[in-house]
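User: Please run a holo structure prediction.
Assistant: Happy to. Please share the sequence and the ligand.
User: Here you go; the ligand is 1-deoxynojirimycin.
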Amino acid sequence: MPRTEHWWRDAVIYQVYPRSFADSDGDGMGDLPGITGRLPYLRELGIDAVWLSPFYPSPQHDAGYDVADYRGVDPRFGDLGDADKLITEAHHLGLKLIVDLVPNHTSSEHEWFRAAVSAPKGSPERARYIFHDGKGPDGSEPPNSWQSVFGGSAWERLPDGQWYLHLFDVTQPDLNWDNPEVRAEFVDILRFWLDRGVDGFRVDVAHGLIKDKDLTDWTSTSQILGGLEPAGPPPPMWDQEGVHEIYQQWRSVLDEYDGGRILVAEAWVQPASRLARYVRPDEMHQAFNFPYLDAPWTPPRLAEIIDESLAANDAVGATTTWVLSNHDVVRHATRLGYPVGQARMHGIGAEDPQPDTALGLRRARAATLLMLGLPGSAYLYQGEELGLPEHTTMPDEFREDPAWERSGHTERGRDGCRVPLPWEADAPSYGFGPSDRSWLPQPPVWAEYAADRQQGVPGSTWELYRAALATRRSHHLGGGTLVWERKDENALMFRNGDVLVLTNFGVEAVELPAGATVLLSSEPLDDGRVPADVTVWAML
Ligand code: NOJ
C-alpha cells in the first residue's frame, strides 16, 4: 500500500475501541496485544488506517476519556512496549494508526488535578483548570448555570469552597487553555506520540477547549455529538473563535514530521460551513461528519447533507468524511430498524420499543454501500462489518456509561454499542478472549454474527464490506467526484467516476439504467431490478 503524504484524503479509517476489540489475557477487557493479534483481519478487510480510542492510564470513569497520564498505557491494556509493537506491526501491514487525544479535560486523578486540589485558591496549580468562586453570599451557588453534557450542573465544589468546571463527568475537570503551560504540555504530548510513530490524532471535543471569559449563563443542555444551533451565536462553551489558533499551532508541529500525520476534529458544530473552519489548510485535516450520521433514511435530506458537506469542505480544500456509527451512538444496524425520522436515541433498554432487526440490517448494508460509494474518507466502527446490532436488552446493572447515573436513569447511555466483539461462534466469550469473561455481557445472538461465521461466506455482511472496500479502492471512489443522476422521494443515484451508485429508499423495485453491469449489491436483485432498501454499484 503506498504511504503518501495525502493518504488520508480518501482513506477508510476503522475505529478500534480497545476495551471491546480483542482480549489477549482473558481478564474480560480488550487490550493492545489483542488488537495487534487481530491486525491481519483488518488488513484482509481492506481498510487503510486504524483509529484507537484511548488506552492511557485512567480510572475509566468515562471508559478512558478521563486520562490520568497522557504518555502511558493503562495496565489493563498493556504497556508502552505493547503500544510500540502495535504501531510497528500496523505499519508493517501497510496500515496507518491514529490515536485519540483528549485535551478538553483530564481525569481528576491526573497529577495536575491532584496538585490543584491540594493547592490554595489563586495558585498556579489551580490556574491549569477552570476554578471560580461560587455565587450567593456564601459562594454556595455554582459560578453560572452551565450544564454537564452527562446531566446535572457542570460545576463541582471543593471543601475549601471553590468550584471547578467539568463539562462532562465530575471526574473530568476542564483544562484552562488560556494558560500557556497547558498549551506547552499538549505540544509535548503530541511530540511524544509522533516520535513513537503514530500517524495522527483524533481530537476529542475539539470545539470545547476555549470558554467564553465572562462565563455567560447558558442553561441549555448539550447532547453527545448534538449539533449546535445553526443560527445565532455559539453557546459560551462551544466553538469559540480561540480554538482555531490552538490547531494552527498543532498543525505546524505535525508538519515537521514526514509521512502525512493528521488531526481529525471531533467537533459538534453546525452548519457544515462552520465545521469546515476546523479543516482550513493551516488547521486540521478532517472533521467527523455528524450531520451525515444523524441523517434520516430519507433521500432528499440525505442528498442535501451530502451536497452541503461536499460544498463546505471543497470551499476550504478539505476532504469530506462520512460516518454511520461510533462508540457514542446506537449502532446503525439498530437505528435503521426503527421507524424513519425517529429522534436520536441515547441508549436502548429491554423495556424500550425494540427495533426490527432484519430491516435494520438490510438498511444498514444499503447505507454502508451508499456511504462507501461517496468521494472522500469514511470512518467505520468496529463490528459494523459483521452487521452487529446494538445490545438493546442489556440489564441495567451492567451499565458503566456515566450518562446513565448522571441523567438520573433517564438516558441509558452508550454501553449498548460497546459490547465486546464476537470472533468465534462456538468459543467462550464468542472468541473475544481466551476466557468466558467480557466486561459487558454479550447477547446470545452474538454467535450468528461471529466473524468466523461470515468470513468466506458469500452474501455475509463481512464479505459485503470486504468487496466494497476492494472495489472502492480499484475504482478510486475515494478520490472521485459525485455527479447526481437522480434524487427524488424514492431513490438516490449518482456517478462517481466510472461507478454508478443507486439506493432504493422506496417500496417498489427500481430499474437500473439500460446496459448497467452490476459490480456489487447490498442484497440480491429481483429479476435485475433493485428492491427496496438496497444499494447497487454498477458500471455503464
Ligand atoms: C467524546 C467521546 O467520543 C466520548 O466518548 C466522551 O465521553 C466525551 N467526548 C468526553 O471525553
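Residues 132 and 163 are 5 Å apart (CA to CA).
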